[in-house]
Amino acid sequence: MALEPLSLSWLLQLGLAFFLLLFSAAMIFVVRLKPSCGCETCQTFLTSRWALEYNNLCDWYSHLLAKSPTGTIHVHVLGNVITANPENVEHMLKTKFENYPKGKQFSAILGDLLGRGIFNVDGDLWRFQRKMACLELGSVSVRSHAFDIVTSEIESRLVPLLRSSSDFDLQDIFRRFSFDSICRFSFGLDPGCLAPSLPACEFAAAFDLASKLSAERAIATSPLVWKVKRFLNLGSERRLKQAIRSVHELAEGVIRHKREHGGAHGDLLSRFMGTTDDDVFLRDIVISFLLAGRDTVASALTSFFWLLSRNPAVVDAIREESDRVIGGDREETVTFAQLREMHHLQAAVHESMRLFPPVQFDSKFCENDDVLADGTFVSRGTRVTYHPYAMGRMERIWGEAPLQFAPERWLENGVFKHKDPFKYPVFQGGIRVCLGKEMALVEMKAVALSIIRRFDIEVIGSGQAPKFMPGLTASIRGGLPAIVTVREGRF
């Protein structure tokens, strides 16, 4: 009897799914048992049980990179060169910048989510978006405006919210705060995620899932695995497609609202809307800047308060400095100028990101055969990853006790001093250095100071090292549960 078309389609999908399972199992077997080279590093990588020895895969990479004489390893089975050598980072981000683009491979992994946004493109599209963003973010007056928005969000929402109860997931609070702030600044819209009721944020949930599943593509054994799953609309790729659809709909809603209702015209979205009518391109821009403004700041603040919970002396030093700079009235709001005078706070924030960078590693793809600064040969098409997380743990870079949280390593005679950006590539470096760096630092310092001066924070389970979830930025599995109490005499 002839099969119905629907049955044929179903059998085809079943057959392809079965092939995918066989292929995945074969690849796992090959990766575990058949390394493409016999080098000690590769063998160690393949046969180790890192999950039993380390909290995070990045900690295992840090271990391998610390053992390497050059600070570079070549994981042949993954076709990936990974480095924690500052000279190699400078080589990639500055000296041979044009030879290390994001690459088509990277764009394919994140293309469904980020499209043609600034973090997923090279060449003219990247230059155009960077130029427009630079016009918006480069001036002191714009940074001052951003500071005013952040201060308003702190005083009208964050502080009253923290006073209203005692138990919070600080990671969730910081995500809500940074989402409201970036939307108000970049798009002239206020989503109100940090309202007292802590409303469910559909965009944030969809974005978190899309970020997690997109990141899992990057660590897949073979791109063919996720591409076949996407073709068949199976498993994680099915969920990713649904999450991205929600993200796109909400981003498109931001653009429609802007067109219909106007509002502030000095924001980033208005500037881009004045140059193009391509709504898909505008949608990709919105998503990219939400990624930059929400996730990185929230990640950095979460790690910062985890570290402070283990280092009360640093909290005391920041409080003493704030009393000296701002004055005895603990309820007085810090000014933009005063914030720049707080060197110990600045040092503590930088030290926190040295140990826990919001973006733990970043990859480029080699355009043409090259030799890195440490002599490592890189063939065309190879993925080259530099690893800020591992670099922050390198004794050869930071001296003795690199795992110690020590803000004083950033101070000279009490004054904050910047480090070599290729030694500390938390904000990248060279031509791709983060344009929003100063604004992000201002936001982080303002939030941290407002909480430190007014509240005592007890992080639950601070004795255990954080475990990070897969994602485009670092996020702690299980959040950061904390007990927040008002300091005596503050209100």
UniProtKB/TrEMBL annotation:
It is a single-pass membrane protein. One of its GO terms (biological process) is terpenoid biosynthetic process. Keywords: Heme, Iron, Metal-binding, Oxidoreductase. Belongs to the cytochrome P450 family. One of its GO terms (molecular function) is heme binding. This is Cytochrome P450 CYP94C54. It holds the Pfam family p450. The lineage of its organism: Eukaryota, Viridiplantae, Streptophyta, Embryophyta, Tracheophyta.
